[in-house]
Amino acid sequence: MPKRQSTREEWWAAGVQFECQGSGRCCTSRGEFGYVYFSPADRKRAAKVMGISERQFRDQYCQQVENSWALKEPEDKNPDCIFLRGNRCTIYEGRPTQCRTWPFWPEVMSAKAWNKGVASYCPGVGKGPVISADVIRPTLDEQAASDLAVASE
Questions:
Q1: What is the sign, positive or negative, of the torsion defined by CA atoms of 93, 98, 99, 102?
Q2: Quick one: angle between helices 40-50 and 54-61, nearest 10?
Q3: At 18, which helix (H) or strand (E)?
Q4: What does the alpha-carbon distance between residue 69 and residue 50 come to, in Å, rounded to a whole number?
Q5: How many beta carbons lie within 10 A of that of residue 72, not counting itself?
Q6: Which of 108, 100, 118, 92 is nearest to 37 (CA)?
Q7: Cα 5 from Cα 96, distance rounded (Å)
Q8: pTM for this one?
């Protein structure tokens, strides 16, 4: 997996207090974070949970976006993920890396992006246990590796 390079200590070096509250707010499209991308491994995992082939999953639930595979947008323009029912994911065990690594994405881990793009709407920020940097770093690396897999298809 690609490793993140850092020239100074990150604001989150002492950890971040976070615990998912099950609100489903992270499963709603918000502008630049509108697409849910699926790497080949993500499609395989989701298809397995659904009991269908990876090809069936891709054909039925994915669309090409800038040469990558992403979850199809709902036809009714509802901003919620098509797998969200109530506040729960219907493919939770097979959800893509992008969903499993939330809120620890490389693009939102600057203090400014975190405060504007995560803490302002995610009710899990500031609740529960402190997630250590030793957990955050590999999660960021996992998301970065997934981003590369999605982009290199």
A1: positive
A2: 100
A3: strand 16-18
A4: 18
A5: 13
A6: 100
A7: 25
A8: 0.87
DSSP 8-state code for residue 26: G
Q: Which two tokens stand for residue 138?
A: 């590999």
Q: How far apart are CA 151 and CA 69, in angstroms?
A: 9
Round to whole Å and give the CA distance between 153 and 120. 34
Distances (CA, A) of 20 to 63, 72, 115, 152: 28, 25, 17, 31
Dist CA 109 CA 113 (whole Å):
6
DSSP character for 76?
T
- Residue 138, burial from CB neighbour count under 10 angstroms (0-12, 13-18, 19+): middle
pLDDT tens per residue, range 65-107: 988 999 998 777 778 899 999 989 999 999 999 999 999 999 9
Dihedral pair phi/psi, residue 64, rounded to 5°: -80, 130
Condensed to tens digits (0 to 9), the pLDDT of residues 28-48 reads 876 655 789 999 999 999 999
Within 8 A by CB and 6+ apart from 42, the residues are 96, 97, 98, 146
One-letter amino acid for residue 9 of the chain: E
What's the full length of the chain, in residues? 153
